[in-house]
Amino acid sequence: MAVVKLFGAWLSPYVYKVIWALKLKGIPYEYIEEDLSNKSPLLLQYNPIHKKVPVLVHDGKPIYESTVILRYIDEIWPQNPLLPANPYDRAVALFWIKFADDKNPIIAKLYRTEGEEQQAVVKEWLEMLEAMEEHALIGGKKFFGGDEINMVDIAFCMVAHWLGVFEDTAGLKVFEPHKFPQVSSWIQNFKSVPIIKDNLPDTDKIVAYLKRRKEMLLTSKSN
Amino acid sequence: MAVVKLFGAWLSPYVYKVIWALKLKGIPYEYIEEDLSNKSPLLLQYNPIHKKVPVLVHDGKPIYESTVILRYIDEIWPQNPLLPANPYDRAVALFWIKFADDKNPIIAKLYRTEGEEQQAVVKEWLEMLEAMEEHALIGGKKFFGGDEINMVDIAFCMVAHWLGVFEDTAGLKVFEPHKFPQVSSWIQNFKSVPIIKDNLPDTDKIVAYLKRRKEMLLTSKSN
């Protein structure tokens, strides 16, 4: 019987964060795909506040919010640590994780906004990319924490993978690699980690899904 | 020479969170009041990303974002722990801290919004109060973590003190104690802790300040 279960959805970046953390730690788990248009009673019971994936269930107890889940995983299974050992470096890492977390709900709107609203979202994206380029990835670091992937890299997965997906859906370009050379190298480094590379959702499938979703949202707005 | 310095502003709930944590731990510190309309070069140097208070400087190194500062304080000075020792209980605490953190920027708009926009803010407040009442403070607990104040109580300081301030400024009532009896008792328990009671900003002074600020914002909007 699996002691670790993960309730997820194939297109959620937040779910992938947990999948990568579990795999980087080498923890076997049972994955349960949720239908987000018809959530299971178990998911609603486990996460009554937000009713969202991901939910990690460990020894029968639910943990939710991807960042909280990652902290829990890192504490329970200390191998391949996902945060620096030094308290100051850890505080810096936690700052960047919070920075990414705070931006995520806004920047995820890129594909389903238009006009001025979309310009405001693009502004948030550029602010994030600039902060990463000028303050976090300075000195040609391979990953945010140095030579090894850690929780900060995972927190910025929206930049590494989903930005391209949103750009394709929206039909516009936000990220110009020559303007953000450090971020550009980091994306390559991040996507070269075998566990990341082997566990990414299919871009074409997400783009097709998001295009349908965008159409539905725009139709319902205009009615 | 003080090894701990706190850059703050008298009306910021986020700054009070740090003040309380330092005092609960018994850490001496030097407090530097910032003029938010004319921020010091040192503040901008220490917090180049957000340019905001609070900033804690420990042994010359800056830490920012109140939640990150509190985690750092709790790790560096382990006396009077502000998080549960058990990893699962700690994950639950971190969930509620994130819940409060995510709501804070929205709910803080209560005093400076009107009409439909204010109704949306009120809705967020009520959702937060309901979640606290029905999921976090169940079983007549004195504090979120049980018998002692911890980081979750501090994270919800907006409810304990600033909601009343915002209500007075806006001239409306959001919190009806009989609808939220557990939250109501918790507010009393929280404000009875000597370090909280003795270190709260002057309500009348904040209300007067926020009323002026609201007027300025509304004037600049209508121009």
Q: Can you give a write-up of this model?
A:
Chains A, B: It catalyses: RX + glutathione = an S-substituted glutathione + a halide anion + H(+). Chains A, B: Residues 86-218 form the GST C-terminal domain. Chains A, B: It is found in: Cytoplasm, Cytosol. Chains A, B: One of its GO terms (molecular function) is glutathione transferase activity. The structure is a homodimer of 223-residue chains. By secondary structure, chain A is α+β, with helices and mostly antiparallel strands. Chain A folds into two domains: 4-76, 3-Layer(aba) Sandwich (Glutaredoxin); 87-221, Up-down Bundle (Glutathione S-transferase Yfyf (Class Pi), Chain A, domain 2). Helix content of chain A is 57%, strand content 8%. Chain A contains ten helices and four strands. In chain A, a hairpin with a 2-residue loop joins strand 3 (55-58) and strand 4. The longest helix of chain A is centred in the middle third of the chain and has 22 residues, at 115-136. In chain A, 38% of the residues are buried. The interface between A and B is medium-sized, with 26 and 26 residues.
CATH architectural designation of the largest domain in chain A: Up-down Bundle
Q: Gyration radius of chain A, to the nearest Å? A: 18 Å
Distance between the termini of chain A: 49 Å
Main pleated-sheet profile of chain A: 4 strands, mixed
> Biggest interface, and residues per chain?
A-B, 26 and 26 residues
Give the strand content of chain A.
Answer: 5-15%
Unreliable stretches covering 5 or more consecutive residues of chain A: none
CATH topology of the largest domain in chain A: Glutathione S-transferase Yfyf (Class Pi), Chain A, domain 2
CATH class of the largest domain in chain A: Mainly Alpha
Helical content of chain A (DSSP H or I, runs of 4+): 55-70%
Sketch the topology of chain A as an H/E string, one letter per element.
EHEHEEHHHHHHHH
Enzyme class (chains A, B): transferase
InterPro entries (chains A, B): Glutathione-S-Trfase_C-like, Glutathione-S-Trfase_C_sf, Glutathione_S-Trfase, Glutathione_S-Trfase_N, GST_C, GST_C_Tau, Omega/Tau-like, Thioredoxin-like_sf
Main location (chains A, B): cytoplasm
Subcellular location (chains A, B): Cytoplasm, Cytosol
